[in-house]
Amino acid sequence: MSTIRKFSVAALATGLGIGALAACGGGSGDSASDGGSGSKTVTLVSHDSFAASKSVLKEFEKQSGYQVKVLEDGDAGQAVNKAILTKDNPQGDVFFGVDNTLLSRALDNGLFQPYEAQEADRIRPEYRADQAGHRVTPIDSGDICVNYDKKYFTDHELAPPQSLDDLTKPAYKNLLVTENASTSSPGLGFLLGTAAQFGDQGWQDYWNKLKGNGLKVVDGWEQAYNEEFSGSAGGKKAGGDRPLVVSYASSPPVEAIYAQPQPKEAPTGVATGTCFRQVEYAGLLSNAKNPAGGKALLDFMIGKEFQEDMPLNMFVDPVREGAQPPADFAKYAVEIKDPHTMAPDKIAANRDQWVKSWTALVLK
What we know:
By secondary structure, this protein is α/β, with parallel strands linked by helices. Helix 6 crosses helix 14 (344-362). Strands 1, 2, 3, 4, 5, 6, 7, 8 and 9 form a nine-stranded mixed beta sheet that branches. The protein is built from 14 helices and nine strands.
């Protein structure tokens, strides 16, 4: 998802002036360092954007007999890299938050041990990966997309862009802000989306056009969305003047759900032809001290209760067949019917060189 930053609900909540949606676990009881198969604590290592309802985690604890400890460890890229460095003596039992853009790095470095979660056959086939090794379990999906400020485009009597090609047109000059592909999850996802559409060579010509059309690049999502983007609650407070931003298809529901009063429709929209599909996985860490607890947690995370809890906590979509997002989320959600995708092995073969080329082309 390069350091990768997954969509931060906490950061967006701060921009909206509400309390952060913090991940919580059963903090009492044995620490994971007490270790051994007899430990009654299972530790989930994740990026900072993990969140789940207290009641849902308590239900897991009731069902399994294990208490959950959540260890948040920076943005997704930082967390993955640290997990790889500590794989011989891991910080926990399960890692959540490696996505399809960095999956090969985690697998190639032996981060996970095999485990096929119970009811893994209920996961939608398009999200499954590593079917031969069963080292990771899909947990959620989301789409990286250009968002637009509806008011800006109404006031200027200008139709918002809907495709990647639209973004290079003179009408949208100096309107788009994106994140650095080498330091940001949505920035990298947006780059991969352009490579998926324009090909291994054509994406560079496309970015030359974007740069010539007044593209602005910042380090990360929080700066782009909560400072530069004129359509977000945080951007309005910060005086942001860019009405186009690379964010997520789930960003408009957040803007609407946490607004007071809640509007009939979200103040921001999604350019549906600009999206790249992101899938997040969890896995049982190699050398986990409590593998039995880790397996139980993975089983629970693809269960219907956890899957239906995610949309209003992490603003992602469930991957389990039959799991439905809550009504508040569904009310404002934007369906992305045909997102750009890319096979993990193609990402693995090209990611580092593409980022290097992108940096030389766009930032210099």
